[in-house]
Amino acid sequence: VQLVESGGGLVQPGGSLRLSCAASGFTFSSYDMRWYRQAPGKERDLVAAITSSGSNTNYADSVKSRFTISKDNTKNTVYQQMNNLKPEGTAVYYCQRWSLVRPYWGQGTQVTVSP
């Protein structure tokens, strides 16, 4: 199982970024996927989740209406479109293959929101 995030970077408050997570080594269409983030000195928090088919999504209250998670099962990739970013969104963002038995994580991508 391999998950590789990309798309992070430095953005001004109010700006946008699109994160990607390319998956390999498993049947991508069979798994729910999630995005988490971890700010310095804080716990890793769930940001968004999507079901295996991509038909259902859920978001943390702090990002509702600003973030959109999507899943392309033909490209084995999960995305997170992030709009109107705020300074408190500065964190390392991780994608996760959800499993009760053993979740898998990517290495993370840094997002910094600063003037």
- Give me the secondary-structure category: mainly beta
> Residue-averaged pLDDT, rounded?
97
Percent strand equals: over 45%
What's the tally of helices? 0
Which residue ranges are poorly predicted, with pLDDT under 50 across at least 5 consecutive positions?
none
Number of β-strand runs: 11
Helical content (DSSP H or I, runs of 4+): under 10%
Distance between the termini: 37 Å
Most strands sheet? 7 strands, mixed
Give, in order, the helices and strands: EEEEEEEEEEE
Rg computed from alpha carbons, rounded to a whole number of angstroms:
13 Å
Large-scale geometry: globular
What order do the helices and strands come in, and which of them pair?
Blueprint: E1 2-6, E2 9-11, E3 17-24, E4 33-38, E5 44-50, E6 57-59, E7 67-72, E8 77-82, E9 91-97, E10 104-105, E11 109-113
Parallel strand pairs: 2-11
Antiparallel strand pairs: 1-3, 3-8, 4-5, 4-9, 5-6, 7-8, 9-10, 9-11
